[in-house]
Amino acid sequence: MSSSLKALSVALALVTGLASVQAFEGIGRSATQPEIKAWDIDVRPDFKGLPPGRGTVAQGQELWEAKCAGCHGVFGESNEVFSPLIGGTTKEDIKNGRVASLRDNSFPGRTTMMKVSQLSSLWDYINRAMPWTAPKSLKPDEVYAVTAYMLSLADVLPADGELSDKNIAEVQQRLPNRNGKSTRHALWPGAEFAAGAKPDVQGSACVKNCAPEAKVASYLPDFARDAHGNLAQQQRLVGPQRGIDTQAKAPPAQAAAAKPVSALLQQHACMACHQIDSKVVGPSFREVVAKYKDRSDAREYYAAKLKSGSAGTWGAVPMPPQALPEADLAAIAAWLAAGARP
Ligand code: HEC
Ligand code: HEC
Asked: Which of 29, 211, 285, 292 makes a 20 to 30 Å CA pair with 9?
């Protein structure tokens, strides 16, 4: 599960720890039982803390479409606000309890369902943190229902299935990556790890005679430089899965043809410096096309200018070279040459 989950459970451990500490003389007051109870919502791997309740896949689907699909996609596949929740698991994984695609470096991403090894984590996280815009607004039955729906999308539960406090331990035994969590290290030391476990990263802070400048000790090897396509051409809003080589799958010409120029101007951040009708950092597109309207080679001119950048024509501020896919560049240049009409 993502680091946010880890951070949350650490934070929670701290909070519950503090609540049981005796009040300091003259500072604050002890937390009341109801206050502690309100904080104490964690569900543990052995399902301690799980409130009773139940929800069906069908109920979950309805809730999902109303409260989750907008951000995570109808099938949990969206890569827009967060990496996909669902995908990358197979019936074989459900049998083995290990997700094979996690070991396949060519697999494009890591979904939540691929990684999660403990159903309690999924239930707990949704219960405390989702929907993003209204955390803790779901009733326990609703958390069971959306979790059931997510599990059905991954074939862990059948379409007419349900999840409840009664069957959750059983369903855990079908979680695709249930055996995927390793404890043979100091982060979550398991029984097989020797006593006296220390974190596996051991650094020491430099406090004297520190080198004044950082020294780069290793570089990305040449063969890996372009492994994910040209990073400069990729602009994604959020999410950890940057760098997918989309050019390899769909020729850029097709991708560009599907998009209106207004979307390309947004995507390539032109509108951060330009507007159609007014000067911002750079000249308005209206002024630009008026200046070059009589050029017969306007299209080539614009394409070249975008590639090389521009300085000294419109004022003191230069435009840096614009790195964008050929097809997008051609579409924008053609649009400018045709008069930058909306
Ligand atoms: C407004 C957008 C939004 C909505 C609506 C939303 N989520 Fe999320 N969800 C997010 C974001 C953003 C994250 C990542 C949060 C982070 O890591 O800090 C996330 C993370 C998650 C995760 C954790 C995945 C992981 O691997 O860590 C789960 C599970 C999840 N959402 C389920 C749901 C469910 C179920 C609903 C509906 C009840 C829902 N979300 C509604 C935006 C949303
Ligand atoms: C960081 C701000 C910035 C960004 C981003 C930017 N521009 Fe510019 N642009 C400028 C400035 C400043 C000028 C004026 C440069 C000069 O004096 O020649 C300019 C000039 C231009 C010109 C006129 C060139 C000429 O020969 O007169 C065009 C056409 C243009 N930009 C298009 C674009 C397009 C299309 C994009 C997006 C792919 C873009 N710009 C992105 C700041 C920017």
From this structure: 29
